[in-house]
Write a structure and sequence with these properties.
By secondary structure, the protein is of the alpha+beta class. It has a single domain (3-262), classed as Penicillin V Acylase, Chain A. Helix content is 18%, strand content 35%. The protein has helices spanning 86-93, 100-109, 160-175, 181-188, 206-212, and strands at 3-8, 14-27, 32-37, 44-49, 57-60, 64-70, 117-123, 128-133, 141-142, 146-150, 222-235, 238-247, 261-268. The longest helix has 16 residues, at 160-175. InterPro entries: TANGO2. This is NRDE family protein.
């Protein structure tokens, strides 16, 4: 997952608590299952990485949530590092009890074992959302309300695609707080690249940096594999979830670019 923009309103009593739009970027050769309820963990809804066994974004029936992006530091990548996707699935599969911040402090104790990552962890029933990056000196922290973005640097680093899509999300929600999920997905499927003078310098070639600057990446062997839109609505002390994923793979592992395979889910959070 390489671009996430989200709006967080923890004090909401009647309306959107959390709204998210996210693109997952990955090598096309890496097989994965689209979003589904996991057979071995029936209360967990997520896609599944069939190489590492984890996931990039998921949620549970009791209101837990997590999402991951890689931190771009090509010269620091270790091929023997453990897969980062299990940081998401471990939170979603564990017994309830720990808070998001508790979990991120646990992760931080062994954060240096992994290649660079951002981890967003939430518990909607607790109205808590927290963030940690193992490439940042900042300790795990709860997030205040507002509209935020994460790409492949620390939270809210002003890369052009993050700034653009964060602003577009904010504008869409100002016009319609319950903007259609399909519209949020369309918003993220933007293939325009940034100007060269706007590009960050992350240690890759200019040509690669340019291609990666698009919100929706299209390259021969690497690109945006799917887009997820998600909304959590508060109804007093009750919460409901709506999510749609549009991906390039219907589960058969035959890649179609750009992907148009969709799955949608809706459920109430179980107390």
């Amino acid at each position: 997952m390489c671009l996430i923009v989200f709006d967080w309103r923890p004090a909401a009593t009647d309306g959107p608590l959390f709204t998210l739009a996210a693109n997952r970027d990955e090598y096309l050769r890496r097989t994965a299952e689209p979003m589904h309820w996991w057979e071995d963990t029936p209360a967990l809804l997520a896609g599944r990485d069939l190489t590492g066994g984890g996931t990039w974004l998921g949620m549970t029936r009791d209101g837990r949530f997590a999402a991951l992006t890689n931190y771009r530091a090509p010269h620091a990548v270790r091929p023997d590092a453990p897969t980062r996707g299990t940081l998401v699935s471990h939170w979603l599969m564990r017994e309830p009890g720990a808070t998001p911040l508790d979990y991120l402090h646990e992760v931080a104790q062994s954060g240096d074992l992994y290649n660079g990552f951002n981890l967003l962890v939430g518990d909607w029933a607790r109205r808590e959302l927290a963030w940690y990056c193992n490439c940042s000196p900042q300790a795990p922290a709860l997030l205040a309300e507002g509209t935020h973005g994460i790409s492949n640097a620390v939270l809210d680093t002003p890369w052009p695609k993050l700034v653009s899509k964060r602003a577009t999300l904010a504008d869409a929600l100002e016009d319609n707080p319950v903007a259609p999920l399909a519209g949020l997905i369309d918003m993220m499927r933007d293939t325009r690249v940034a100007r060269d003078d706007e590009l960050p310098a992350t240690g890759v070639s200019l040509e690669f940096e340019r291609a990666l600057s698009a919100p929706f990446i299209e390259m021969p062997e690497y690109g945006t594999r799917g887009t997820t839109a998600l909304r959590v609505l508060a109804h007093g002390e009750r919460f409901s979830v709506q999510t749609t994923e549009r991906s390039d793979d219907n589960g058969s592992h035959r890649i179609k670019r750009p992907g148009d395979y969709e799955r949608s889910f809706a459920f109430d959070i179980e107390s």
